[in-house]
């Protein structure tokens, strides 16, 4: 909102000066005084006199009046007529829509200045003609904006509801639709006024707008051009007045548009803070491909720093599948992105380590991390449609992944890409390689993503909900594919999901996350057979069995800025007790781990 | 193919609408062209002379006949002859249109060469010094009207520094160096708005692309940053940028009038302005028609290029 003040004030000043022109006691802007032709500043004429000896300051002020009259009048006419046409076209559809909206296409066929010249030819120059021309030029903008808004408003529930109640059309239009389109129409109005000032001055400059001797900024520039060798300042004043006015109007338009569109909020720049020194944490497990310890991620938000991931440890061995399970908001995706070095700019790891092939992924140089990404560590994302680049052929996108890490010719990489597509079960890979992502089915696209991920024989593959966006039957095929590829290559697989059925099918071990913390860890058989944490038990109980309905867990995951001080699951836990108010620690229990003080006393059924 | 044919048919229909509107507007507005042409200084013209001119121009025939004759002439490229000097309108247009197009092309070249790299850089270092400076400059360039920039350029470079003449034109074949020198100032004036618009659009589109999933995929593949920028960010951002550029170029088809006037560049607008003042109807109609048809054609070509850049459009 602060951005509105300066340009808004400037525009207001110009408007007020133009309105008050007759009250300011300035000399007559039209009276000529050839004896004082091109005279410099003098008493009564602080800016001097022009080529006919007329007072420059007075002509500037009265010129503002002429420009603004034309601009506001034409924009207002266009706004009223255009909004009406758009309302009618949007509401009645059919023939009304055709004439109201399609006729605008014809109007848009004329470049603006050209249409103005044509009308001026027919009607002769003058302020009246200008207003008419400019109104016609801005008409399509208003019609389009209103029409589009009505179409979207029509489908809103509340408009449907009022219609169903039998309210007459004109009342619906006035009461429900008009207030909703006020914002966009206001933005359009400010745009029209600003651009009308530009066009008015341009046409007047050509001698086709305001008729001399009436003052106008365009005419003043036209006049001063002739004498620019003797009096360059005469050129400067109207240029300055015109440009500043338009600049202020444009800035006001931008500010208005941003105010009307809440999506454009500026993001906070990332802050660099020293991370914890490495070596304070226990050494990595010798046989693990990835061993993550105590990972904590902070995000600086306008309302304070939050920790969506806190003290998360997990590890996975070669040939093993680790499932990371949790509801949305549990921090599982951020954990994976941290290992990839792909955290969003606002998020940074502040504690912990992620050991991979003897290196801590959290402390790698970007260039080093890049060499690992796509080769030793690869990732498959949730939505294969948006994760593939829509403008490149899929064969090229796979080949690109190969050539990023292997010195292959384009031809050889292409042949390898086709081979990879075949390995991921894509029929007719030669032809499919030339397809664009939108020409493939969802399951096919995910196979392409997997082909890309395994292109350089990764030691670790992270799959972030790779089947969530797919059909149930396709889900099973993709799971089979991943399991088969893992058997062939012996890679470690981290499988992120909220679907426990998938976990049982594919995983060896499971790590359960809740509100950014690990709450339970163990083999799938142990954890599913005898859950130690009430949250795990609740998750398992929520899985629908046979035809039974899913029980669901009452309540929601607490947001990271509003975590309970003790056990984070306590507010939703059927077993909550006073002991749960204290912070919970992750405790080892016979090769498993659980974050619950009452784990020993509870006998949880699967 | 069917899609392209449909677009072509719609375009032809639009051109026909434009031609009809221009024709009707000229003939339905009160005032007899012949009378206007012959009257000078408020003296009523000789009725016999008016009648003779009306007959020569075919203005005495029924409106429908004139309309049919006008439409029949269009496919043959017959746009009539100037009322002032009898010169065929089409020849005049063919002589001057290339010069106008050259001006627009030079401005668009500036926009692509400056606007796209600057917009990309501003987006990559969003909120940084370059971004703030370039964004402010773009706002300023958009605010200063084109004839003001032109006039100030003349004032500074021709009047004060005396580096080059205030305006004029020399054919490329006659003196390439001088041709380019004379082209430079008008091209700058035309290009300033295009550069600003392309800069803004590129900045927005690149910022949008940087947040897309497919860019994250490209990073996950371990591609070098330069390649990600070229193939997965800028390449995808080109579609909206070029669309905006084409729209702007289209509106420039008529908008060069001001620049050609300021720099005395003998493009299409000189005869247009002269014809407007002299009420030389065939000339005005011809030029407006040709420019509008070009405008429609440009939009058509742009749609086709759009389909080339974005494979998803092709199927629709």
TrEMBL record, chain A:
The chain crosses the membrane at residues 68-92, 113-139, 232-252. Coiled coil: none annotated. Keywords: ATP-binding, Cell membrane, Membrane, Nucleotide-binding, Transmembrane, Transmembrane helix, Transport. Residues 290-540 form the ABC transporter domain. It is found in: Cell inner membrane; Cell membrane. InterPro entries: AAA+_ATPase, ABC_Ni/Peptide_Import, ABC_transporter-like_ATP-bd, ABC_transporter-like_CS, MetI-like, MetI-like_sf, Oligopep_ABC_C, P-loop_NTPase. It is a peripheral membrane protein; Multi-pass membrane protein. The keyword Acetylation does not apply. CDD domains: ABC_NikE_OppD_transporters, TM_PBP2. SMART domains: AAA. It comes from the Bacteria. Pfam families: ABC_tran, BPD_transp_1, oligo_HPY. Its main location: membrane. Residues 64-253 form the ABC transmembrane type-1 domain. Belongs to the ABC transporter superfamily. Belongs to the binding-protein-dependent transport system permease family. This is Peptide ABC transporter permease. It comes from Paracraurococcus ruber. The lineage of its organism: Bacteria, Pseudomonadati, Pseudomonadota, Alphaproteobacteria, Acetobacterales.
TrEMBL record, chain B:
The chain crosses the membrane at residues 103-124, 136-160, 180-199, 237-263, 283-309. The keyword Nucleotide-binding does not apply. Keywords: Cell membrane, Membrane, Transmembrane, Transmembrane helix, Transport. InterPro entries: BPD_transp_1_N (IPR045621), MetI-like (IPR000515), MetI-like_sf (IPR035906). Signal peptide: none annotated. It is found in: Cell membrane. It is a multi-pass membrane protein. It comes from the Bacteria. Residues 97-306 form the ABC transmembrane type-1 domain. PROSITE patterns: ABC_TM1. Belongs to the binding-protein-dependent transport system permease family. This is Glutathione ABC transporter permease GsiC. The lineage of its organism: Bacteria, Pseudomonadati, Pseudomonadota, Alphaproteobacteria, Acetobacterales.
């Amino acid at each position: 909102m602060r951005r509105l003040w300066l340009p808004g004030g400037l525009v207001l000043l110009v408007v007020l000066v133009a309105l008050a022109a007759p009250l300011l006691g300035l000399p007559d802007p039209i009276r000529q005084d050839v004896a004082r032709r091109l005279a410099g500043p003098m008493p009564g004429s602080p800016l001097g006199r022009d080529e006919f000896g007329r007072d420059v300051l007075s002509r500037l002020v009265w010129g503002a009046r002429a420009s603004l009259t034309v601009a506001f009048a034409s924009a207002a006419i266009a706004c009223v007529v255009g909004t009406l046409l758009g309302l009618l076209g949007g509401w009645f559809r059919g023939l009304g829509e055709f004439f109201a909206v399609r006729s605008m296409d014809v109007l848009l066929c004329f470049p603006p200045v050209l249409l103005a010249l044509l009308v001026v030819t027919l009607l002769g120059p003058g302020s009246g003609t200008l207003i008419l021309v400019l109104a016609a030029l801005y008409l399509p903008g208003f019609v389009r904006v209103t029409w589009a808004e009505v179409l979207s408003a029509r489908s809103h529930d509340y408009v449907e509801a009022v219609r169903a109640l039998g309210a007459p059309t004109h009342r619906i239009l006035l009461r429900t639709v008009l207030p909703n389109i006020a914002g966009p129409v206001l933005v359009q109005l400010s745009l029209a006024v600003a651009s009308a000032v530009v066009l008015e001055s341009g046409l007047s400059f050509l001698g086709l707008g305001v008729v001399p001797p009436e003052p106008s900024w365009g005419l003043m520039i036209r006049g001063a051009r002739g004498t620019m060798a003797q009096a360059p300042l005469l050129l400067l004043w109207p240029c300055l007045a015109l440009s500043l006015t338009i600049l202020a109007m444009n800035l006001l338009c931008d500010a208005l548009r941003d105010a009307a569109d809440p999506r454009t909020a500026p993001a906070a720049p990332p802050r660099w803070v020293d991370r914890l020194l490495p070596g304070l944490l226990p050494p990595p497990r010798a046989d693990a491909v990835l061993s993550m310890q105590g990972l904590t991620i902070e995000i600086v938000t306008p309302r304070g720093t939050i920790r969506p991931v806190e003290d998360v440890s997990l590890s996975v061995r070669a040939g093993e599948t680790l499932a990371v399970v949790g509801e949305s908001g549990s921090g599982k995706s951020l954990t994976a992105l941290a290992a990839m070095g792909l955290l969003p700019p606002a998020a940074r790891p502040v504690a912990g380590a992620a050991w991979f092939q003897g290196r801590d992924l959290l402390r790698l140089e970007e260039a080093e991390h890049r060499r690992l990404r796509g080769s030793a560590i690869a990732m498959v994302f949730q939505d294969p449609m948006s994760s593939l680049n829509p403008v490149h052929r899929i064969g090229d996108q796979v080949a690109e992944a190969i050539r990023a890490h292997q010195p292959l010719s384009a031809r050889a990489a292409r042949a390898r890409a086709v081979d990879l597509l075949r390995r991921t079960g894509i029929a007719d890979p030669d032809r499919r390689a030339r397809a664009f992502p939108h020409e493939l089915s969802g399951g096919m696209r995910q196979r392409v993503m997997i082909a890309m991920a395994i292109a350089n024989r990764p030691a670790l593959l992270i799959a972030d909900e790779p089947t969530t966006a797919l059909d149930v039957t396709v889900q099973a095929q993709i799971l089979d594919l991943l399991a088969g590829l893992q058997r062939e290559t012996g890679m470690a697989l981290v499988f992120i999901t909220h679907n426990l059925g998938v976990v049982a099918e594919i995983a060896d071990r499971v790590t359960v996350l809740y509100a950014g913390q690990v709450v339970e860890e163990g083999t799938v058989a142990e954890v599913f057979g005898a859950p130690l944490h009430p949250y795990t038990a609740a998750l398992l109980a929520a899985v629908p069995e046979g035809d039974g309905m899913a029980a669901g867990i009452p309540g929601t995951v607490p947001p990271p800025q509003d975590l309970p001080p003790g056990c984070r699951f306590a507010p939703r836990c059927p077993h909550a007790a006073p002991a749960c108010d204290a912070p919970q620690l992750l405790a080892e229990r016979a090769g498993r781990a659980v974050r619950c003080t009452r784990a020993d006393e509870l006998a949880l059924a699967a | 193919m069917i899609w392209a044919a449909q677009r072509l048919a719609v375009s032809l229909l639009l051109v026909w609408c434009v031609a009809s509107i221009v024709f009707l507007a000229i003939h339905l507005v009160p005032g007899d062209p012949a009378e206007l042409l012959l009257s000078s200084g408020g003296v009523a013209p000789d009725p016999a002379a008016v009648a003779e001119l009306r007959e020569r121009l075919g203005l005495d025939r029924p409106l429908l006949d004139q309309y049919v004759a006008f439409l029949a002439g269009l496919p043959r490229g017959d746009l009539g002859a100037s009322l002032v000097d009898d010169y065929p309108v089409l020849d005049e247009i063919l002589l001057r249109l290339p010069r106008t197009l050259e001006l627009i092309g030079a401005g668009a070249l500036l926009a692509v060469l400056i606007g796209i790299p600057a917009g990309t850089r501003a987006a990559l270092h969003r909120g940084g010094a370059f971004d703030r400076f370039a964004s402010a400059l773009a706002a300023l360039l958009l605010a200063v009207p084109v004839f003001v920039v032109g006039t100030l350029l003349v004032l500074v470079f021709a009047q004060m520094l005396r580096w080059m003449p205030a305006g004029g034109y020399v054919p490329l074949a006659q003196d390439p160096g001088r041709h380019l020198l004379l082209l430079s100032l008008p091209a700058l004036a035309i290009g300033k708005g295009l550069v600003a618009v392309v800069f803004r659009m590129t900045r927005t589109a690149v910022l949008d692309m940087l947040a897309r999933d497919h860019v994250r995929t490209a990073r996950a593949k371990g591609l070098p940053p330069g390649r990600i920028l070229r193939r997965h960010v800028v390449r995808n951002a080109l579609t909206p940028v070029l669309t905006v550029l084409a729209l702007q170029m289209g509106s420039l088809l008529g908008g060069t009038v001001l620049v050609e006037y300021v720099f005395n560049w003998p493009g299409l607008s000189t005869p247009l302005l002269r014809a407007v003042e002299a009420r030389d109807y065939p000339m005005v109609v011809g030029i407006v028609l040709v420019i509008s048809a070009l405008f429609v054609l440009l939009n058509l070509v742009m749609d086709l290029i759009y389909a080339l850049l974005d494979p998803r459009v092709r199927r629709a």
